[in-house]
Amino acid sequence: MILIHLLSKNNNNFIKNSNYVLLGRRAIIQDPEIGEGKKGGLAGVFVYKFKIHHQEMLLAYEWNPEQRLLLALGVHENFYQGLKRG
């Protein structure tokens, strides 16, 4: 059994309520390495890119064999700035 945890900064409920999350999470449950592993300040974060209605969406997550932690969902514009760790 794989647990999915949703993390949403600033009380943003978009990631918690979005049907887009359902599409992305199916893919990362089956193959958590499907996303591109990031480096530097985002080491350990993976980003899975997929299209919805001709719009590319990005789903950022961290994972281990038992669980996935969904960090952010959005379009490319300013996506990585919101993910950067201080």
What does this structure look like?
The mean pLDDT is 78. This protein has helices at residues 14-17, 19-30, 79-83; strands spanning 3-6, 36-37, 46-52, 55-64, 67-74. The relative contact order is 0.23. It has 86 residues and is of the alpha+beta class. The chain has one domain: RelE-like (YaeB-like fold).
Structure in a nutshell:
The protein is an alpha+beta fold. It contains three helices and five strands, in the order E-H-H-E-E-E-E-H. The mean pLDDT is 78.
Number of helices: 3
Choose one word for the global shape. globular
- Helix percentage range: 10-25%
Sheet with most strands: 5 strands, mixed
Number of spatially distinct domains: 1
Q: What would CATH call the homologous superfamily? A: RelE-like
Mean pLDDT across all residues, rounded? 78
What order do the SSEs take from the amino end to the carboxyl end, as H and E? EHHEEEEH
Number of DSSP strand runs: 5
Amino-to-carboxy terminus distance: 33 Å
CATH topology: YaeB-like fold
For the record, the CATH class is Alpha Beta
Q: For the CA atoms, what is the radius of gyration?
A: 12 Å
Instruction: Give the strand content.
Output: 35-45%
Please mark out the parts with pLDDT under 50 across 5 or more consecutive residues, or reply none: none
- Largest sheet: spatial strand order: 1-5-4-3-2
Q: Helix- and strand-based class? A: alpha+beta
CATH architecture grouping? 2-Layer Sandwich
